[in-house]
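Protein Record: Sequence and Backbone Structure Tokens
======================================================
Tokens: labelled as protein backbone structure tokens, with as many entries as the chain has residues.
Task: work out the structure tokens from the sequence, keeping to the layout shown below.
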Amino acid sequence: MFSNLATQGSSSTSEGKEVVAESENNVATYLSMAVLTLHKVNGFEAEAEFPPESKAYLEKHAHLFPATGEKVKEAQQLVDQNVQPKHMNKNISKYHAT
């Protein structure tokens, strides 16, 4: 699905840019579904809602998946080095939008 995305994205036509935008939106949708599945697998109730803030964050940053090349630097800037798993285990709701 993404094998020709770089070629399409380098196109100067609006059609190529539309394809890239649509692909990025598809990635965000896929990630939100995949993370929701993991949400359930990790012990949350089947009917538990995936936080809308988290879904919005994934959609906003869909272009970083996968983070390669210059995207790695951008992704690294979004990482809070002070947050440890123990912090998220204590109260993950603080991190829904980050």
Notes: The two ends are 27 Å apart (CA to CA). The first helix runs from residue 5 to 9. The chain has a mean pLDDT of 73.
